[in-house]
Each structure stands twice: as structure tokens, then as C-alpha cells.
TrEMBL record:
Gene3D superfamilies: 2,3-Dihydroxybiphenyl 1,2-Dioxygenase, domain 1 (3.10.180.10). GO terms for molecular function: dioxygenase activity. This is Catechol 2,3-dioxygenase. CDD domains: VOC. SUPFAM superfamilies: Glyoxalase/Bleomycin resistance protein/Dihydroxybiphenyl dioxygenase (SSF54593). Pfam families: Glyoxalase (PF00903). Residues 4-127 form the VOC domain. It comes from Chryseobacterium ureilyticum. Coiled coil: none annotated. PROSITE patterns: VOC. The keyword Oxidoreductase applies. Keywords: Dioxygenase, Oxidoreductase.
Length: 148
């Protein structure tokens, strides 16, 4: 029955600024802006595969987390520069000061994090080949590769 996740929604403090961030900075496409309520829908990929809803919330903003699918190659060779070029601060899951992508060994998946202007925690993630090794926890990609 379930074939994937089609859409998710996050709160933003200013809808105009949220639309600008997600379209101009991250490259999503505006799909629809509802003129009867403070919400906009954005296409994440081509062919209407995935959608992000932005809801303006002036008070009691509740930041959320979600991840964008990416390729291993893009995360390893391009993600940090992409984020820094957009004045965004990449960080890893451990929040240990490193901007190096990390591997969640249980999946396994490679990931790097960053925040939107409202503190929503965003992530670029790529599932890696092979079986997970939960006993390894979270480690650098280099450490992961040494295990294989």
C-alpha cells in the first residue's frame, strides 16, 4: 500500500522569506500558494514526485526535521561547499564542530545537516550500499570505508 513519503510540512515565521529560502537558496519550485491561508506548496523534485508545505506561524514556532534525498557523490564532494556558498552552516549529526558528512552505520546512510532560517533541521542523505552495522554507531565516511 505505502510506496514512499509524498509530502511533509514545516512551520516558517514569515511565508515570503520561507518561499524565498526554499526556492532561491535550495532550488525548490513553487507549486501553489494558497491565498486563503498562509501556506505555500513547493515541488522538491521534477515530475511532482515530492512536495514540501510551508505554513506561516507567527507565534510558538515548532521547528521540525526532514531530509532531502541526495547522491553519495554529491554529499561527499559538493554538499559542504554548496551550503557554505549559500551562507548556511553544515554540521554533522554529532554536532561536534565537524562539517564532515557522517555515516549512520545502522542503515547505512551518509548525511550532512543544516538549518533553515527558522531553525528547521534539514539534511542531505544518501543510502549506502551494503548491510547496516548498528554496532558501529555514527562514524565518518572514511571510518565506514575502512570497515568494508
Amino acid at each position: 500500500m505505502i510506496k514512499g513519503l509524498y509530502e511533509t510540512h514545516v512551520q516558517v515565521s514569515d511565508l515570503e522569506k520561507g518561499i524565498k529560502f526554499y526556492t532561491e537558496v535550495l532550488g525548490l519550485k513553487l507549486a501553489h500558494r494558497d491565498e486563503t491561508r498562509p501556506i505555500a506548496f513547493l515541488w522538491i523534485a521534477e515530475n511532482k514526485e515530492f512536495m514540501l508545505g510551508l505554513w506561516e506561524q507567527k507565534e510558538n514556532l515548532q521547528p521540525r526535521h526532514f531530509a532531502f534525498s541526495s547522491s553519495k557523490e554529491d554529499i561527499l564532494s559538493y554538499s559542504v561547499k554548496f551550503l557554505e556558498d549559500k551562507s548556511l552552516k553544515p554540521y554533522n549529526f554529532l554536532k561536534n564542530g565537524s562539517i564532515e558528512p557522517m555515516v549512520f552505520a545502522w542503515m547505512p546512510a551518509l548525511a550532512i545537516y543544516f538549518n533553515d532560517p527558522d531553525g528547521n533541521q534539514l539534511e542531505f542523505i544518501s543510502i549506502l550500499e551494503g548491510d547496516g552495522k548498528p554496532e558501529l554507531g555514527v562514524l565518518t565516511y572514511e571510518e565506514w570505508m575502512k570497515q568494508h
